[in-house]
Design goal:
seven-stranded antiparallel beta sheet; disordered C terminus; Aminopeptidase; 687 residues; 15 helices; six-stranded mixed beta sheet; alpha+beta
Length: 687
């Protein structure tokens, strides 16, 4: 005979007091078991095996009357005892342990699922990087790195090109860019440092005597193995992974990404003619703009008219703009970027293996959210004739200092001191100590002409860096198209910073939500204006503010040659061209005051006869017109009274008509009423 206490669905169960109570048990735990993951199902089974009550939930409901049984009243006992007087049973320890074991099983299965997902992504990235053949590197060329270890990456820009219209011979492989990236989970930043390609170094080519020449010759003479060994010998840095990108692949990658919004710091122009020097042509206008493949390649590969340090900074600036624009959407388009990146670069074999990628991903995961800091290589810019190879030089102390800053240097954002400087330069006495001079009258006139072509106020700095004041300001107004297709007006003023290849820009445009304004590093309020500050290391890269329905900003030079105080002071004294300038003559410092409307000077009185007659005629006209209008106003008033009287009469007539109609109806009904009232009397007499 079945035990009634078994508690199966639809059966009776026995209560602790010995009575029989009707219950109906609904097992919710088994409704959707088929939809659970295998690990999840097994963990629930492990929990259920420990205690039957964990496996299902009971819903008590009344049974049909034919099966109802009156339960006995529960017995009342002392506190701490069961209703039948026996002490309560403690929960079994095995049940608790099994519940904990089930939870651990769930966690392990979740971790296994996550690991499977990550591994699948690693395989996808590995396949993407395998689109190009791996670099041929002998064993021991690169230093090994484990999961989460600090790693140093080397990005090489290969300038190898075939015969072109302005090159009389093919360009051999040589490293146009040698960018080192240091990812150290123990540091609050990711370091980025370019090795100057013109840095003087002794190269040891295989099967050839050593030669003292430019650093990038190591790549030409021995490829990646010789370049990596030269970095190790000269700088003391071990490289863990290498990526090589050619000019053609770079151009294609930028186009496939959808182009990049970046800042061209100055006017770049060179066209080859039969009598000119023959090198890469370039034609770029200054300002924040959209750069596609050909334009981006011109910008990052240009190697004339400035220094090696400026060229390296130009490359880094473009890469940071790529990160700024596409970094926030990387996870949403991971497959697209993996494919583009894999097509663009050629990597070492380690980055085409699951183990190597996992170790690098471990380092990247532990360094997630780190900001990028640029480390400038310390070098001496000597005249080209100072060395046989037209190289730049660096002493052992300078090299050691550069490497130490790259590996261990700290450059926290100086928020407190920058805010203090911003408030200090708002005071004209403190700002007067900076190397700034007033804007020239000719530059202000040129800016005023440019402002007339804009539909929003043009703000222009009333001071500029003293070192570059001898060079004229380059002004340009243009239209920039956003990624969604809308067109916005913009302008740029390019100022020399007084150093070869160094220019800072003052800009404004009506596209206030451009990607470069996302996530400022600091916000300060000075002089009724709110500034957004953007840093590169300890240096201010950009200061922006919003007003007049537009956004205005000052962008430092490529190597941040303008000091923080100067950048802030220039921003403070950048205002609309409608401001009134007072103060000393050109060359001295100017003080800005609020614009005011000048008082008009009364013209001297004249006794011309025609003007006198005209004035009298005008006065008579002013007097006659009201007089002529008075009869017209009187007639309009009488007409209004007549209309009101007519309206009243019409309402009275309507009421009279209604009264007459009611009276007629009453008169027509009265004979019938009399006849009905006399009929019973005649009947009574007949009885």
């Amino acid at each position: 005979m079945a035990d009634p206490s078994a508690g199966r669905d639809g059966e009776l169960t026995r209560d602790p007091g010995g009575g029989i109570e009707p219950t109906r048990r609904l097992e919710l735990g088994r409704v959707d078991e088929s939809q659970h993951h295998v690990c999840g199902a097994s963990s629930f089974q492990a929990i259920d095996a420990g205690h039957p009550s964990v496996h299902s939930m009971s819903v008590i409901s009344a049974l049909p009357k034919s099966h109802s049984v009156s339960p006995e009243p529960p017995a009342v006992g002392p506190p701490g005892e069961s209703p039948n007087g026996s002490p309560p049973n403690p929960p079994p320890r095995r049940t608790t342990l099994r519940i904990i074991l089930g939870c651990l099983v769930v966690l392990v299965c979740s971790a296994a699922a996550s690991a499977a997902f990550v591994l699948d992504q690693v395989h996808t990235l590995r396949d993407a990087l395998s689109q190009n053949r791996a670099l041929n590197l002998p064993p021991g060329t690169l230093a090994p790195a484990g999961w989460g270890d600090p790693q140093t990456l080397l990005l090489v820009g290969d300038d190898q090109r075939a015969l072109t219209k302005y090159y009389l011979h093919a360009v051999l492989p040589h490293s146009n860019e040698m960018l080192l990236v240091r990812i150290d989970p123990s540091k609050p930043y990711i370091s980025m440092m370019s090795i100057p390609r013109e840095l003087e170094a002794t190269i040891y080519p295989p099967n050839a005597p050593p030669i003292t020449t430019r650093f990038n010759y190591a790549y030409t003479a021995g490829g990646i193995p010789l370049l990596v060994s030269t970095i190790k010998r000269v700088l003391g840095l071990s490289v863990n992974h290498v990526m090589v990108v050619t000019f053609g692949r770079f151009k294609r990658a930028v186009n496939e990404m959808g182009c990049v919004y970046s800042t061209i710091d100055r006017r770049y122009y060179h066209v080859n003619t039969p009598t000119s020097e023959q090198y890469q042509e370039i034609n770029l206008e200054p300002g924040y703009q959209k750069l596609c493949g050909a334009q981006a390649l011109q910008f990052v590969s240009y190697r004339h008219g400035d220094t090696s340090l400026v060229r390296d900074a130009r490359d880094q600036s473009f890469l940071l703009d790529v990160k700024k624009q596409y970094g926030p959407t990387l996870t949403d388009n991971i497959g697209k970027f993996e494919r583009i990146f894999g097509q663009a670069v050629q990597t070492d074999p380690g980055l085409q293996s699951t183990t190597g990628l996992l170790n690098l991903i471990g380092t990247l995961i532990t360094s997630a959210g780190r900001r990028v800091r640029q480390v400038q290589f310390q070098a001496n810019l000597v005249p080209a004739s100072a060395t046989p190879c037209a190289c730049v030089t660096a002493s052992p102390q300078q090299i050691t200092s550069s490497v130490d800053a790259f590996l261990h240097g700290s450059s926290p954002i100086p928020k407190r001191s920058t805010a203090a400087v911003a408030h200090a330069v708002h005071n004209k006495k403190a700002a007067a100590k900076l190397p700034l001079v007033s804007a020239s009258e000719s530059d202000l006139a040129s800016a005023d002409a440019t402002a007339s072509k804009l539909s929003f106020p043009m703000e222009y700095p009333r001071v500029q860096d003293a070192g570059g004041s001898v060079q004229p300001v380059f002004l340009r107004n243009y239209v920039i198209h956003a990624s969604h297709g809308s067109a916005y007006l913009a302008y740029v003023a390019v100022f020399s910073a007084g150093v070869l290849g160094q220019y800072y820009d003052v800009q404004g445009m009506t596209w206030t939500t451009a990607a470069q304004f996302n996530s400022p590093d600091q916000i300060i309020h000075v002089g009724g204006r709110t500034y957004s500050l953007y840093y590169e290391g300890e240096n201010l890269k950009m200061v922006a503010w919003h007003e007049h329905g537009a956004v205005y900003w000052i962008r430092n030079s490529l190597n941040n040659s303008v000091q923080n105080g100067e950048v802030l002071a220039i921003a403070e004294q950048t205002s609309p061209l409608t401001s009134v300038l007072t103060g000393s003559s050109a060359g001295g410092r100017r003080k800005l005051h609020a614009a005011a409307i000048p008082n008009q000077t009364a013209a001297p009185a004249t006794t011309d006869l025609k003007q006198l007659i005209g004035s009298l005629a005008g006065l008579l006209t002013l007097l006659v017109v009201p007089l002529l209008a008075m009869p017209l106003l009187k007639r309009r008033r009488e007409l209004a009274d007549l209309r009101a009287q007519l309206h009243t009469n019409l309402q009275l007539q309507a009421r009279l008509n209604a009264t007459v109609a009611d009276a007629s109806i009453s008169a027509a009904r009265s004979p019938h009423l009399k006849a009905k009232s006399s009929a019973p009397d005649r009947g009574a007499k007949g009885d």
